[in-house]
């Protein structure tokens, strides 16, 4: 037994020593390889480290790029009108493209006092820029001028405040709106019409722009001697007032056969009275806007057509104007977003374009 144990121990010692010998030889070979190729190995290590650091920096850049560049404040006229919803969509689209944050606020329905409160919040918060609808009155001018003194750029949208220190106005030339409405009326009546105009005197609207629309309309029909504006009425209470005025027009002895309205609410009010009095086809109505019922009435032939601004483009361009003010320190004081004309002939294409935006 003892002899066998000694043989077993010696055999295993030989195996261990043999393994150690092989390990030592392998280590020597590896050491020799490293010594001979140390420069190449260092180069590989440096390259790997460089790639790692590059990717790390790129990741840091991505994180930084996700941080918004500016915080802007957008004040709409109301939160329910499809027109202002499309403006909001345009602003948000430009905000995504430019990597900025836009805080949106608007009264649920038209309310000049709420608009002023939102302006106060924006100025107090010292935001990087303001896009705002403005109402008539010295209060709006005072707020815009205060923002100017604090170094906050202000872009007015859809309704201007020319006497303030706003930096730019984004909207449509009201005179051109009137001319396009005149062309619609000419087309609808073949250049022969006794016309009543219903214009809004809503305190939230710019009376100068309303006058420009009327002047544009008169300019558009001046070469048509058989087209005459016989009455100009002022709507003071929205749709109900427009209905009452239309009722008065239809009951008058002036044989009026065409009506022009200059805002969406009055357009709907006039259309409703034309329906109620069974005057569809007898009274030509040219209006303003693209509210759902307005488009439906155009499709039914109750409204011949409407003119309006391009709300999505208006929103997009207003934010781009703020970006130019922040980045380039300059911008055009008036950015014209052109006129949209809607009739039965292009209604399908127009509704498709709205669906794409939404």
From TrEMBL:
Keywords: Membrane, Signal, Transmembrane, Transmembrane helix
Family affiliation: Belongs to the bacterial solute-binding protein 2 family.
GO terms of molecular function: carbohydrate binding
Pfam families attached to this UniProt entry: Peripla_BP_4
Membrane-spanning residues: 37-54
GO annotation, cellular component aspect: cell envelope
Name of the protein this chain belongs to: Monosaccharide ABC transporter substrate-binding protein, CUT2 family
Entries under SUPFAM superfamilies matching the protein: Periplasmic binding protein-like I (SSF53822)
Predominant subcellular localization, coarse grouping: other
Domain of life: Bacteria
Compartments in which it is found: Cell envelope
Gene3D superfamilies: 3.40.50.2300
Domain Periplasmic binding protein: 73-327
InterPro entries, per database record: Peripla_BP_I, SBP_2_dom
The species this protein was found in: Anaerovirgula multivorans
């Amino acid at each position: 037994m003892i002899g066998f144990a000694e043989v077993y121990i010696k055999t295993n010692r030989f195996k261990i020593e043999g393994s150690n010998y092989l390990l030592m030889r392998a280590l020597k070979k590896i050491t020799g390889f490293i010594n001979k190729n140390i420069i190449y190995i260092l180069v590989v290590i440096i390259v790997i480290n460089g790639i790692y650091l590059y990717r790390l920096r790129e990741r840091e850049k991505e994180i930084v790029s996700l941080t918004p560049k500016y915080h802007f404040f957008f004040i709409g006229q109301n939160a329910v009108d499809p027109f202002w919803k499309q403006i909001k969509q345009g602003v948000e689209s430009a905000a995504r493209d430019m990597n900025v944050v836009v805080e949106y606020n608007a009264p649920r329905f038209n309310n000049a006092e709420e608009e002023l409160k939102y302006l106060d919040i924006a100025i107090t918060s010292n935001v990087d820029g303001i896009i705002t609808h403005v109402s008539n009155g010295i209060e709006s001018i005072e707020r815009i001028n205060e923002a100017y003194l604090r170094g906050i750029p202000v872009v007015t949208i859809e309704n201007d405040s020319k006497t303030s220190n706003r930096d730019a106005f984004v909207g449509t030339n009201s005179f051109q709106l009137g001319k396009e409405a005149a062309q619609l009326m000419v087309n609808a009546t073949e250049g022969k019409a006794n016309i009543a105009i219903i214009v809004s005197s809503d305190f939230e609207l710019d009376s100068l722009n309303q006058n420009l629309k009327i002047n544009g309309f008169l300019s558009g029909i001046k070469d048509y001697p058989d087209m005459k504006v016989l009455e100009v009425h002022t709507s003071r209470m929205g749709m109900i007032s427009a209905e009452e005025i239309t009722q008065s027009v239809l009951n008058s002895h002036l044989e009026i056969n065409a009506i022009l309205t200059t805002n969406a609410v009055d357009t709907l009010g006039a259309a409703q009275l034309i329906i109620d009095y069974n005057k569809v086809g007898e009274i030509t109505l040219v209006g303003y806007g693209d509210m759902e019922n307005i488009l439906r009435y155009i499709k039914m032939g109750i409204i011949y057509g409407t003119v309006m601004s391009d709300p999505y483009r208006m929103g997009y361009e207003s934010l781009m104007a703020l970006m130019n003010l922040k980045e380039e320190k300059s911008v055009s004081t008036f950015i014209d977003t052109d006129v949209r004309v809607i009739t039965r002939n292009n209604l399908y294409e127009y509704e498709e374009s709205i669906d794409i935006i939404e």
